[in-house]
Specification:
Strand order of the largest sheet: 5-2-1-9-21-20
Helix content: 25-40%
Radius of gyration: 22 Å
Largest sheet: 6 strands, mixed
Bound molecules: flavin-adenine dinucleotide
Number of strands: 25
Number of helices: 11
Distance between the termini: 51 Å
CATH class of one domain: Alpha Beta
CATH topology of one domain: FAD/NAD(P)-binding domain
Length: 411
C-alpha cells in the first residue's frame, strides 16, 4: 500500500514540501483552510491599495493540478492525534503515515486580545482588505468632516511595531497620505496628515545592522513619518493609542508587533517556546514521533550555535525541501542529517526607490537596495501572470504615482 503523507498548510513551507514530493510513490494530501497560496511579503501593498489580492495569491489547486499524487483539501485542521496518526477536522478525519505541519503564525497582542478589533494585524488577505478599507475610509471621513479635531484624528495613522512589516506599512501609508491619494481630496492638505511608527526598542529593524536601521529611520522621517522609539503601547481605545510617552489620537491603528503560533500546535502536546512554536529536533521532527515534522513559522529550530531561526520565507522553503528529502529517501531517524539554514539575506523596503538590504555581509540602502528588493520579490512570486501583473502595477505607480485598487467593498 502507498504511504500517506498529510501536509497541513500551503504556505511557503507546505507548498515547497508538496512540490518536492510530487510524482513520487507517496499519496499526498495538502490541506489548507484557505483556497490560495499567499505571498505574504507583498501583503502590505494590498493593504495600501497598490496591488490587488489576486496579484499576490494563487489558487492552491491550480498550482498542483499536474501532480497526480497530490490531492488538495480545503478545510481547517482542528487537532492532531499524534499517537493514532490522525488529523481531525470539524466533521471528519484523515490518517497519515507521515505528517508535515506548516501552519504559519498569527499576530500576538501579548494577552490584550481585545486590541485586535481596534488595531488589526496583517497576515491574511482578509486582514489586508480590512486595513485597506480602514485607510481609505479614514480619508473619506476626513473629507466631509468640519470639526477640525475630529478631522485630525481621521488623518492620523499609527503603526505599532518597527519590524520590516511595520516599516513597510509606515512608508507606504506616508506615500498615500502625503503624496499620492491626497491629490484627490479637497478638504485637507498633505501637512494635515500624520503617520506614527511606534517601536518599543531603541531602534527600528532591530534584526538589521545598526547603520541600516538608522538609514531606514532617516528615510521614514524624510517621508514625514514620526518614528517613536522606546515607546511601549499601554492601551488602545476607540480614540487612539496610549504609550508610556504620550497619547496619540487616531482612528486608524495597525498592529505589526509580535507573532503567536497556531493554537492547533497545542494538540501535539510537546514542548513549545514562549510564542507557542514547537521546539523541533535537528531533523525538524518532534520528540518521540520521527514521522511528524514541523516547519516554517510554526517551528522553533535552534542552530548548533544556539541561534534560533527567524520566521522568514526562506527558512520555511528550505525546511520544506529538507523534510521532503528525508521522507522521500525514507531515512531512519538515527541516520537523518541535521537541517542547515543558508541565509540568503534580508531586506525591507521603505518607499519608492528606498530600501535596506543585507546580503551575504553586504549592506545596501537606497535605490540599489530597492532594485534588489524588487527583483527578489518578482522572482519569488508564484506564477508568470502574477509576476507580469505586479511588474506592470509597479511601473504604472512609479510613473503616475497613483494607487490602482482603492475600492471600499465591505459594509
Ligand atoms: C505582512 C508580512 C510580511 C512578510 N514579509 C516577509 C519578507 O519580506 N521576507 C520574508 O522572508 N518573510 C516575510 N514574512 C514572513 C513569511 O511570510 C513567513 O515566514 C512565511 O510565510 C512562513 O511560511 P509557513 O509555510 O511557515 O507559513 P505560511 O506561509 O503562513 O502558511 C501557513 C498556511 O497554513 C494554513 N493554515 C493555518 N492553520 C491551518 C489549519 N489549522 N488548517 C489548515 N490550514 C491552516 C494557512 O491558511 C496558510 O496558508 C512576512 C510575513 C508577513 C505576515
Amino acid at each position: 500500500m502507498k504511504k500517506k503523507i498529510l501536509i497541513i498548510g500551503a504556505g511557503f513551507g507546505g507548498l515547497t514540501a508538496a512540490k518536492n514530493l510530487a510524482d513520487t510513490e507517496f499519496e499526498i494530501t495538502l490541506i489548507d483552510k484557505t483556497n490560495h497560496h499567499l505571498f505574504q511579503p507583498l501583503l502590505y501593498q494590498v493593504a495600501t491599495a497598490a496591488l490587488s489580492p489576486s496579484d499576490i495569491a494563487v489558487p492552491i489547486r491550480s498550482l498542483l493540478s499536474d501532480n497526480k499524487n497530490i490531492k488538495v483539501i480545503l478545510d481547517e485542521v482542528i487537532s492532531i492525534d499524534k499517537n493514532n496518526h490522525i488529523v481531525n477536522f470539524k466533521d471528519s478525519q484523515l490518517e497519515f503515515d507521515y505528517l508535515i505541519v506548516a501552519v504559519g503564525a498569527r499576530h500576538s497582542y501579548f494577552g490584550k486580545n481585545e486590541w485586535e478589533q481596534l488595531a488589526p494585524g496583517l497576515k491574511t488577505l482578509t486582514d489586508a482588505l480590512v486595513i485597506r478599507e480602514k485607510i481609505i475610509e479614514a480619508l473619506e471621513l476626513a473629507e466631509k468632516e468640519t470639526n477640525h479635531e475630529l478631522m485630525k484624528k481621521y488623518l492620523t495613522f499609527v503603526i505599532v511595531g518597527g519590524g520590516p512589516t511595520g516599516v513597510e506599512l509606515a512608508g507606504a501609508i506616508a506615500e498615500i497620505a502625503k503624496e499620492t491619494m491626497i491629490k484627490d481630496y479637497k478638504n485637507f492638505r498633505p501637512e494635515d496628515t500624520k503617520v506614527f511608527l511606534i517601536e518599543a526598542m531603541d531602534r527600528i529593524l532591530s534584526s538589521f545592522d545598526k547603520k541600516l536601521s538608522e538609514q531606514a529611520k532617516e528615510d521614514l522621517m524624510n517621508m514625514g513619518v514620526e518614528v517613536k522609539l522606546n515607546a511601549k503601547v499601554e492601551n488602545i481605545s476607540q480614540d487612539g493609542v496610549h504609550t508610556n510617552q504620550e497619547f496619540i489620537p487616531s482612528k486608524t491603528i495597525i498592529w505589526a508587533a509580535g507573532n503567536q503560533a497556531s493554537p492547533l500546535l497545542k494538540s501535539l502536546n510537546v514542548e513549545t517556546d514562549r510564542a507557542g512554536r514547537v521546539i523541533v529536533k535537528k531533523d525538524c521532527s518532534i520528540p518521540g514521533n520521527p514521522e511528524i515534522f514541523l516547519i516554517g513559522d510554526a517551528a522553533h529550530f535552534e542552530e548548533e550555535n544556539g541561534n534560533v531561526l527567524p520566521g522568514v520565507a526562506q527558512v520555511a522553503i528550505q525546511q520544506g525541501k529538507f523534510v521532503a528529502e528525508v521522507i522521500k529517501n525514507q531515512i531512519p531517524p538515527e541516520r537523518r542529517p541535521s537541517f542547515r539554514y543558508k541565509d540568503k539575506g534580508t531586506m525591507a523596503t521603505i518607499g519608492k526607490a528606498k530600501a535596506v538590504a543585507e546580503i551575504k555581509g553586504l549592506k545596501l540602502s537606497g535605490v540599489i537596495a530597492w532594485l534588489a528588493w524588487s527583483i527578489v520579490h518578482i522572482f519569488f512570486l508564484i506564477g508568470f501572470r502574477n509576476r507580469f501583473r505586479v511588474m506592470i502595477e509597479w511601473i504604472w505607480y512609479y510613473i503616475t504615482k497613483r494607487h490602482g485598487t482603492r475600492l471600499i467593498v465591505g459594509k
